[in-house]
Amino acid sequence: MASAPSLDEQDYVRGGATQTAVKILVVGHFAVGKTTLIGSISEIEPLSTEETMTQAAEAVDDLKGVQGKTTTTVAMDFGRLTISDRVVLYLFGTPGQQRFVQMWEDMARGALGALVLVDPERLADSFPVIDLIEHYGLDYAIAVNHFDGVPLRDERALREALDLLDDTPVVTCDARDEKSSAAALTTLVRYLLDRTR
C-alpha cells in the first residue's frame, strides 16, 4: 500500500481562497470575562447576546464574587480576528452557566481548540468547564483573567490546582485589554500548531 502524499500549507486552502477560517471556542465559568475578551479583540462588531439578569436568574446563578454583575450571555458571543494574511480566527464564546451546557456540543463541533478563561479566585468553578472541553476532545490553553486588586498567582500552583498536563499552556491576561487578549489567543494558536505537526 502506497503511503499518502504529505501535505503542505497550500493544501489547507481551497483553490482561489485567500484565507483559512479557524473556529476557536472561548469558554469559562459564569462571569469570568468571555464576552469582554471577545469584545476587546474582535475586528468586527462582536455579536453579543448579553441580556439583563432577572430575579429568576439570581436564584440560579451564583453571584458570589461578582455581585456587581447585571448582564449575562444567554446564547453565545461571536467575533473575528485575522492573525495573518492566510488565517482568520472565528471566536465563539459559550455561556458559562450549567443550564446552557447542552449548547456546547453544537458549538464544539468543528472547533480546532479552546481558550479557557479562569478566575484565580474561583478556580473550582473551572473544573466542570475543563471537563467538558476534555470530553469533546479539544486541545486548550488556560488564560488566567487578572482582575483588579487580585494578586498574581504562581503558575505551578495554578497547574496543580487545575490538574493540568505539563504541556498545557497557561498565560495571564486582562480580558479588557486588546494586546493581552491577543497574546492569550496567540499562545493557544501556537500550541495548536505544535500539536498538529
TrEMBL record:
Any single Pfam family the record assigns to this protein: ATP_bind_1
Keyword Transcription regulation appears in the UniProt entry: no
Family to which this protein belongs: Belongs to the GPN-loop GTPase family.
Key words of the record: GTP-binding, Hydrolase, Nucleotide-binding
Keyword Flavoprotein included in the entry's annotation: no
Domain of life of the native organism: Bacteria
Protein name per Swiss-Prot or TrEMBL: ATP/GTP-binding protein
PANTHER family: ATP/GTP-BINDING PROTEIN-RELATED, GLIDING MOTILITY PROTEIN MGLA
InterPro entries: Gliding_Motility_GTPase, Gpn, P-loop_NTPase
